[in-house]
Design brief:
The chain is an alpha+beta fold. Among the domains are: 78 residues; 147 residues, Heat Shock Protein 90. Helices cover 48% and strands 16% of the residues. It has a 5-stranded antiparallel sheet. It has a 5-stranded mixed sheet with strand order 7-9-10-12-11. The protein has a two-stranded antiparallel sheet with strand order 6-8. β3 and β4 form a beta hairpin. α5 packs parallel to α9 and α7 runs antiparallel to α9. It is rod-shaped and about 150 Å long.
């Protein structure tokens, strides 16, 4: 079996492979997205904590300066050691606000604007134990700032609010870089999952594909049972299918035997009754003769139908059409040798009937025999495979029998399925030929059509399953 990642027609709309593949892909996608969101959130929190630790170092330094300053005076922090606090609008600011004064006194870094920076307490940010607050605010020049602040209560020496802010662009850039790297990594992992799922589904369902191929081979007549080793989960299915096929063959064989036995059991008493009635000349004898004739026809009809159904039920029988057509044509030429009848055959190579040889001989024999009886001088037989439009669809073969006789009216064509109906009493026969063909074709799932032949007589077209 050829193995490829995406075989042509491997995953049609309603297939087990499609369900397994898309279910696995959907679950993998949901899991990867969920993990990605969690990892992104965790990394952002880690970056924020790292950024807050940096801000808290500056905050503690400023709080220490405030605590050691002269009472009533707001100190100038001197040990921050970062020149960004001196660059205007750098994004890094500190601010000290005295809260217990009549008018709050504010002192801020040289980098901060005159209006200072927003206070988290006034924005409704709740305080953590120890009076700490942290959060994001909109700073000057549309800057997004990360702010930490703390209230320092020195009693009689004053109550202060110390704030330190840093440019949150660092957090955003680090988070974005991580998200991009995470997305690329998960995209590669997702692609690997897709390829692994394709391989897993393809490899896991290969035994089912082997069973399907084996069943197709059985239907085409190349084998009679499922062969080969199958996995433990599939092996019982293969065993049961083989057992079912074997049981089917046994049932068909028993049916054939019973049909034959029944035919012999009924024909002999009916023949005796008819012979006895034929030797007498009275109303009772006529009635017996009439009814035994009806019984004989009914027995023949139902036995023939049972025989046909038993044969059609056989799995795996195939017949090459060419030799059968040639043999029938030769036989008919000998039978009608005195009429100078010409039989022409047009055939394509490799046409194989999916059924038993005796059924094909019966189908063609009846049609060709009927054509020879009515033909003036010429009978044409053509056989060809029907083109397949959809890959994997059932294949058929086309058989055409034409004659140059008087043809058949359309009203008479509709009476063909009526068993034993003779359309013209001027020719010998029982009237069963075309109706037998009709029943047998129907059992095989084919089609019989009657029309006017191009050469003037009757055209009989058969559509039969091909191997």
């Amino acid at each position: 079996m050829r193995v490829s990642w995406i075989p042509a027609g491997w995953m049609p709309g309603n297939s087990l492979a499609r369900r397994l593949f898309f279910t696995a892909v959907a679950v993998s996608a949901v899991v990867l997205v969920a993990i990605g969101l969690v990892l992104s959130a965790l990394y952002t929190n880690a970056v924020e904590r790292s950024f807050d630790r940096r801000l808290n170092i500056y905050l503690k330094t400023i709080v220490a300066d405030v605590a050691s300053a002269t009472a009533g005076a707001i100190p100038e922090p001197s040990a921050l050691g970062d020149p960004l606090f001196d660059l205007p609008l750098s994004g890094w600011y500190w601010q000290i606000t005295r809260m217990d004064a009549v008018a709050p006194e504010v002192k801020h870094s040289r980098s901060a604007p005159e209006a200072g920076i927003p206070i988290l307490a006034t924005l409704g940010v709740p305080a953590r134990p120890g009076g700490f607050r942290e959060g994001y605010v909109d700073g000057p020049d549309r800057q997004r700032l990360r702010v930490v602040e703390r209230i320092v209560d020195l009693g009689e020496d004053g109550r202060y609010l110390v704030s330190v802010a840093g440019d949150a662009t660092e957090i955003d850039e680090d988070s974005t870089d991580f998200d991009i790297a995470l997305a690329i990594t998960f995209a590669v992992i997702g692609l690997a999952f897709v390829l692994a799922t394709l391989f897993q589904v393809r490899f896991g369902l290969r035994p089912l594909a082997r069973i399907s191929s084996s069943l197709a081979a059985m239907r085409s007549g190349n084998t009679e049972r499922l062969e080969g080793e199958f996995p433990r989960e599939i092996a019982p299915l293969a065993r049961e299918l083989n057992a079912l096929l074997e049981s089917n063959r046994e049932i068909v064989e028993r049916a054939r035997t019973h049909v034959g036995n029944l035919a012999h059991a009924l024909k002999t008493p009916l023949s005796v009754l008819r012979n006895e009635a034929a030797g007498r000349d009275d109303p009772l004898a006529e009635k017996v003769n009439e009814q035994t004739g009806v019984m004989h026809d009914q027995v023949q009809r139902h036995l023939e139908r049972a025989r046909l159904m038993a044969r059609v039920a056989t799995v795996g029988a195939t017949t090459e059409v060419g030799p059968v057509v040639t043999g029938i044509a030769r036989t008919m030429e000998k039978i009608h040798a005195g009429r100078s009848l010409k039989i022409e055959i047009r055939q394509a190579d490799g046409v194989v009937f999916l059924g038993e040889r005796q059924d094909l001989e019966e189908l063609l024999g009846n049609l060709v025999d009927n054509a020879c009886k009515w033909a003036a001088s010429r009978v044409e037989i053509e056989m060809r495979p029907e083109p397949v439009d959809v890959p994997g669809a059932r294949r058929y073969l086309h058989l055409i029998v034409d004659d140059d006789g008087p043809g058949l009216p359309e009203e008479a064509r509709r009476e063909i399925p009526e068993r034993g109906r003779r359309l013209d009493e001027s020719r010998p026969g029982s009237g069963l030929g075309l109706s037998i063909v009709y029943e047998l074709v129907t059992l095989y799932g084919g089609k019989l059509e009657l029309s006017t032949a191009p050469i003037g007589g009757l055209r009989a077209e058969l559509l039969l399953p091909a191997a």
